Amino acid sequence: MPIIYLSPSTQEWNLYLNGGTEEYYMNLIADAMVPYLRSCGIQYTRNTPNMTAASSIRASNAGRYDLHLALHSNASPESSAGQNRGSEVYYAAGSRNGKRAAEIIANNLKKIYPYPEKVRALTTNYLGEVTKTRAPAVLIEFAYHDNQEDMDWIVNNIQAIAANVVQSLTEYFGIPFILPQQPVVGVVTTQRTSLNIRSKPSITAPIIGQVGRGYRVTVYGTWEDWYVIDSSGVVGYANSRYITL
Question: For the SH3b domain, which residue ranges apply (predicted)?
C-alpha cells in the first residue's frame, strides 16, 4: 500500500488576515485528511509544527515514501499584497511522477476552487520540498492568505479541501476513494487457511501479507466486497466475506 510523507507548513510567522497562521490552517487540513487517508489505506508519516522545511526534507529522505506532499498557502509580494488569487501546485522540473501528481491535484482542485481558471500545476527549481526530496514531491499553495476572499475560502472549506486532496492521491495511486468510517475491530473467520491481504481490492492483486484464522484486525474502510484493514501494521485489502465485525 502507498505511504506518503505529509508535510503541512511550519511557517507560524505567515499571518492570515483573520489573525491565524499558515501553520495553523495547513495543519487543520492535514488533520482533516487523516480519516480519509486511513479509510483509503494510504499510510503516512507527518511532520510536526516544531520542525522546519529543512528538517521535514531530512525526515522524508530518511524514509521510503511514494510521495512527499507539502501543504501551504500563498502570499503576494508587498507591492501587490492582497491583489492575487489562485491555487498553484508545484513539482520539480524533470520529475515525471511529480508532474503527474501535481496535474491530478490541480485538476481536482478546479472542482472546488471558485475560479478554476486560476488553478495551475507549475514547475519549480527553487522550492526545496520538491527539489530536494528523494520521493516524487508536490507542494500545494492552496490560495492566497493575504487576499480576503482566498483566505475565507481556505478557512471555510477545510473538510472539502482535505477530501479533495485525498481523492487526488487515490487517483494517483490507482486505488478507490473511500469515505471515512468509524474504525471497527473484526475477526478473521476463514475455514483453515490464512486470509490474504492484498495491495488492491482484487483477487489478482499482489499479496502483501496474511493473517490467521481467529486473529483480530482493524477495519478502516469498505469498498464493495473488500475491507481496508490493518493487521499488526500491515495495511491492505482483505475480502470482507472472511472477516466478522
Answer: 183-245
Label residue 103 by pLDDT band (50, 70, 90). very high
- Bridge partners of 91, per DSSP, are 123
In tens, the pLDDT along 218-240 reads 999 999 999 999 999 999 999 99
Q: Does domain 184-244 have CATH number 2.30.30.40?
A: yes
| Alpha-carbon distances, residue 10 vs 17, 53, 82, 225 (angstroms) | 18, 7, 22, 40
pLDDT tens digits, residue range 122-145?
Answer: 999 999 999 999 999 999 999 999
Mean pLDDT confidence for 82-92 = 97
What is the rounded CA–CA span in Å between residue 150 and residue 28? 16
> Nearest to residue 150, comparing CAs of 81, 49, 91, 102?
81
Measure the CA–CA gap between 235 and 196, rounded to whole angstroms. Answer: 11
Return the amino acid letter for 126.
Y
Backbone angles phi, psi at 152, to 5 degrees: -60, -35
- The domain segmentation of the chain, as residue ranges, is 3-173, 184-244
Which letter does DSSP use for residue 180 in this model? -
What's the rounded Cα separation, in Å, for the pair 41 and 142?
24
Per-residue pLDDT, averaged over 96-110, amounts to 99
Selection from 48, 52, 13 nearest residue 27 by Cα? 48
Q: Evaluate whether 122 touches 144 at the Cβ level (below 8 Å).
A: no
Report the topology of domain 3-173. Answer: Aminopeptidase (3.40.630)
Q: Are 175 and 41 in contact (CB under 8 A)?
A: yes
- Residues 20 and 33: beta-carbon distance below 8 Å: no
What pLDDT is recorded for position 46?
99
